Amino acid sequence: MAKDRKVEQITDMDVDFGQWFTDVVIRAELIAYSGAKGFFIMRPYGYAIWENIQTELDKRFKELGHENVAMPLLIPESLLQMEKDHVEGFAPECAWVTFGGSEELDERLCIRPTSETLFCDHWAQVVQSWRDLPMLYNQWNSVLRWEKSTRPFLRHREFLWQEGHTLHATSEEALAETERMLEVYAEVYEDILAMPVVKGAKTDKEKFAGAERTYTVECMMHDKKALQNGTSHYFGDGFARAFNIKFTDKDNRLTYPFETSWGFSTRSIGGIVMTHGDNNGLSLPPRIAPTQAIVIPIASHKPGVLEKAASLVSRLKAAGLRVKMDSSDQSPGWKFAEYEMKGIPLRIEIGPKDIENDQCVAARRDTGERLPVPLSQLEARIPEILDDIQSSLYARAKDNLTRNTRDAKTLDEVKSILEEHGGFIRTMWCGSQECELQMKEEAGVTSRCIPFEQERVGDVCPICGKASDTMIVWGVAY
Known about the structure:
By secondary structure, the chain is of the alpha+beta class. The chain has 3 domains: 2-276, BirA Bifunctional Protein, domain 2; 293-390, Anticodon-binding domain (Rossmann fold); 405-475, C-terminal domain of ProRS (Translation Initiation Factor IF3), CATH 3.30.110.30. The protein has 14 helices and 23 strands. An 11-stranded mixed β-sheet has the order 3-7-8-14-11-10-9-22-23-21-20. The chain has a 5-stranded mixed β-sheet with strand order 16-15-17-18-19, with helices on both faces.
């Protein structure tokens, strides 16, 4: 298999997974370091992946009735202070503007870490009647959180994301929206990014600042650690009360609306790398890859080779695929290694002998398998192969998740599993924060989520021994 080979420019993933990850995102030209500590440059190839994710999400948002808006970058301190739990949750990560030009500001301005307060301030001005609801908004933007330690894609001080914010007349509508948007995230992760997810609710300790409920999709990386991805939050009417958002309902009563927010960021690109990559670099799912197939002319100096390669590109583009050709003077071996590093799902080779046989050769990035493809079947076979690669990557990631999820009934079993295997550990849980904190302190794992799909994996909480009906998933997370 492709993962058994190794590219010398990157660290072996089984020797140092963290360094392997950094090597890959730099070597594959996804990201670069900037002159400001903790701030990264999204290079064109990395940004193209984000654009494809953005396209998939934006299409789904609009199909569900959401509209894109743009809120300001800066939040007055007095506005941020209006929701106590929210500001306390973000206070350590806030960056402040105190000067405008050469003049000190009368009030500090926070560079947005998220935009709930901005939306609430706006809604307090424009919402009057039940006819104004629901308000289904989304914005594509960057936010700033002053992280102490940073890592490419996984933890930036500034990162790109979408943040959806909605306002509803009833709690039932808002809760349905919270769940609906989590399903959108799960669909994109599984169907587009080929990353299986565990869907569930966060504990009270881990939920979003100011939220009544937080739902999450959790993914397992190749090294068996967890990565929290898209999250969806139900706020109840807490923000509406804090910001005095009121509307007249159908019975002509003045009441408070109910709010949600949900977000999906460029952290997902890091997840793609750590889920599908190998010792040759990236391995991108075809549905998200900026280039789904790269055409490589072999012996391009010989008559007719470049022209035939160009015709393949034209035919595949006309079939709706994202295809490029490399006709540079680099050697075929260099090109093979380069495009394996960049994770292009399929390499299509054509040379004089292939032309004689009226075929090309398709080399799969995921397995390294080389497949002869008759040119008469090009438009049919290449999409079939790409679909199979997509399914294969998902199946491999699903197998990793399944094999490395284990059940435990005692704290000692949790510790033993973590030491011997790592991965996700399922236990029962009494629901107390004291037991949650003790599990982290003694076993070194954090709660990932309370899965929607509940199973009984024991009878009691492994910490306190109390009878429990709730299953929870634990893991070591990025």
